Amino acid sequence: MKFLENIINMKINGITGKELVKYGKQFNIDVSLDQAELIAKYLRGKNIDIFNDNDRTKVIKEIAKVCGPQTAKKVNQLFIMLTK
């Protein structure tokens, strides 16, 4: 299981804005390319572990600042689905 966690975290830590928009559409999360770029910039190189509650909370708070609480809530639901 740790192997899959590492792959998911690696993908999140190196994601691009275009990829975020694509995944957002897949999961009905509205995010503009500008917002996605800001989120990707925040995530890139931070070595965030979405399986860690503190790291995930920090990311969700930053997403809420950039995209609003509704989008952050949807992203959090997606992260929770991925981590279970």
UniProtKB/TrEMBL annotation:
Pfam families: DUF2624 (PF11116). InterPro entries: DUF2624. It comes from the Bacteria. This is DUF2624 domain-containing protein. It comes from Caldifermentibacillus hisashii.
